[in-house]
Design goal:
The structure holds two protein chains of two kinds. Chain A is built from no helices and eleven strands. Chain A is an all-beta fold. Chain A is globular and about 45 Å long. Chain B is mostly beta strands. Chain B is 0% helix and 49% strand. In chain B, a hairpin with a 2-residue loop joins strand 5 and strand 6. The chains are: A mainly beta, B mainly beta.
Chain lengths: 113, 112
């Protein structure tokens, strides 16, 4: 069974204070790891897909990296508008027969001005 | 603009009533999915469909039903058999040759 664990559950930063969010995963064979941003009361917004260890993707102040056991979402010099819940998900070759994504519980990020 | 629409945004029902949530996409995606989101939990897969007239149960399909008569539409019915129906319901779609899923805005269902 695929498992995804995100840490910390919540993170409060000052504007401009860089940090990283962690996503640890256990799968039998990784087909992709995904990062989403979710604002309160809205659907998740797709950010990145990572397929293999060593891969990196960047978008504005966000950078996602992948190892064989975990992924990091690095946030550089964040702004208050970066406040959101960040979700990590995986898709595996096993998937228990279901073809959807397995999600972590998310990290709730607050950036204070 | 291409995207996924879900309606209504908020839905209130009495216990014992069936209710249908709408999901439409104009992205020309083959696959569509329904997830449920509860506070403090990750999204959980209810049903998915890779092609018209075919769909598969996800991890928590009990008490739900779906249909896929058109490529663009994937409605979800929450039946009276679902013991804890109050939740935020999310519809998603993806291309057959890609793994990333794109989500709609969600429907918040409250059953009292």
């Amino acid at each position: 069974e695929d498992q995804v664990t995100q840490s910390p559950e919540a993170l409060r930063l000052q504007e401009g204070e860089s940090s990283s969010l962690n996503c640890s995963y256990t799968v039998s064979g990784l087909r992709g790891l995904f990062w989403y941003r979710q604002d309160p009361g809205k659907g998740p917004e797709f950010l990145f897909t990572l397929y293999s260890a060593g891969e990196e993707k960047e978008k504005e102040r966000l950078k996602a990296t992948l190892t064989k056991k975990e992924s990091f979402l690095h946030i550089t010099a964040p702004k208050p508008e970066d406040s959101a819940t960040y979700l990590c998900a995986v898709r595996s070759y096993s998937g228990g027969g279901a073809d959807g994504l397995t999600f972590g519980k998310g990290t709730h990020l607050i950036i204070q001005p | 603009d291409g995207g996924i629409t879900q309606s209504p945004k908020y839905l209130f029902r009495k216990e014992g009533q069936n209710v249908t949530l709408s999901c439409e996409q104009n992205l020309n995606h083959d696959a569509m999915y329904w997830y449920r989101q509860d506070p403090g939990q990750g999204l959980r897969l209810i049903y998915y469909s890779q092609i018209v007239n075919d769909f598969q149960k996800g991890d928590i399909a009990e008490g739900y039903s779906v249909s896929r008569e058109k490529k663009e539409s994937f409605p979800l019915t929450v039946t009276s058999a679902q013991k804890n129906p109050t939740a935020f319901y999310l519809c998603a779609s993806s291309r057959r040759d890609a793994y990333e899923q794109y989500f709609g805005p969600g429907t918040r269902l409250t059953v009292t």
